[in-house]
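Researcher: We're teaching a course module on how sequence relates to structure. For the next exercise, students receive a sequence and then see the predicted structure as tokens, so they can try to spot secondary structure elements on their own. Here is the exercise chain.
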Amino acid sequence: MVYKSKHIKPKQVEFDAIVIGTGSGGGVVAHRMQQAGKKVAVVEQEKMGGECPNYGCIPTKALLQAAETIQTIEEAKNFGIDVGQPKVNWQKLHEWKNAAVYNTGTHAGEQAYENDGITVIKGHAHFIDPWTISVGAKRYTAHKFLIATGTHDFVPPIPGLKESGYIGYREALETTKPPKKLFIIGGGAIGCEFAEIFSTFGVEIHLAEFAPRLLFREDEEVGELTQAIFEEKGILVHVDSKVVKVEKKGGQKVVHVDTLGKVHKVTVDEILLAAGKQPNTDLGLENAGVDYDRKGITVNGEMQTSVSHIWATGDVTGGYMFTHTASYEGRIAANNMLHNIKHHADYSAVPRCVFISPEVAAVGKTEQELKEKGVAYQVGAVPISILGRANTSQKDTGFVKLLADKKGRILGGSIIAPRAGEMIHEVTMAVQYKMKASRIEHMIHAFPTWSQAVRSAANKINCK
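Model: And here is the predicted structure for the students to work with:
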């Protein structure tokens, strides 16, 4: 949609900048504007700090750490250590998860902003015109605005779903009595991480993905190996599958799943939605003249919207929905709101991580993207089983795959390994700075480490 404003900027405004949303993108902008001597306000309708520390990254990774601990205990016998069968104390588990959230400091976020001289406004922001928002019964004006309002769960139009009931990731995090059987709709990062969590805690998991494989945006080998690992753990994976109907039957739910034209039924206790997200654009953007569509707010490379004094960052823009990209975009927006020399976003080397076990990480181009664009490329790949670290850890499932152009410059990479999220940064730097694989291959890597697999993969690429 394109909207044109006929409003005239008021002669006097209350703030230099108003930041809507206090997540990783909004928080960066608010503090940098304040540090530059600007009068700043933030608007937050939920918990300070946004989704990541309260409902996303931190609590899920805390539970994934607990799941990894269970797996470590279960595997202890392989190392001659007998500790018995682990048991989950759900009350203590949630106390641990809540402690991890508390330790981020977001509970004191409002006071922290105010201590820095930033005005905190609680409630839902709505644009009245390009320089004015309303929050509750009050109005606030500013020279500049930053929108960082994030997203909410996409609810697919499945007949019977709403009537039968379901949970999202927020409700899943607060579950104190897990279901015996759980059906997860969506095989992306969120769906896979919750499948890992709940299956490790003893829940029977059905995981459905419309695409031909899990983690469909990554290389084919990534999705296929992830599925194989999940199935070995007892997770029932349904790819090429669409949920066509849900029925309530007593205290359970019957999920009708169409897999390549054949419909079968799965009876479960609960359904978890992980089918994607929608941007939070219910902000009166029409009144401000800000362009947006169903994917999010339209921004240019400077994070500027169609209105020159309004910027947007993070998930609400519909781009990479990661905390690290929101923070990166916040730094760009803050610079451009303050200075004449503009910075531009570069998404060529955004690391993408899924914290299942073993972890999945990728950066840059995938093989499918290179094929579609007709780019000539070469592949260097090795299994992690060749590593001394794999031998000493008894973890030999995974690989490192590097993609390079014909001159050997790294274009992308994929890793499945116990610490893939840490390993990917070496590849990220190579992609960011267009390094040749030989630069990695010639660099000394400590022995025995997982990162030696990156060097071994680089060794298989010809450089000119």
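Model: If you want an answer key for the exercise: Residues 57-74 form the longest helix (18 residues). The two ends are 48 Å apart (CA to CA).
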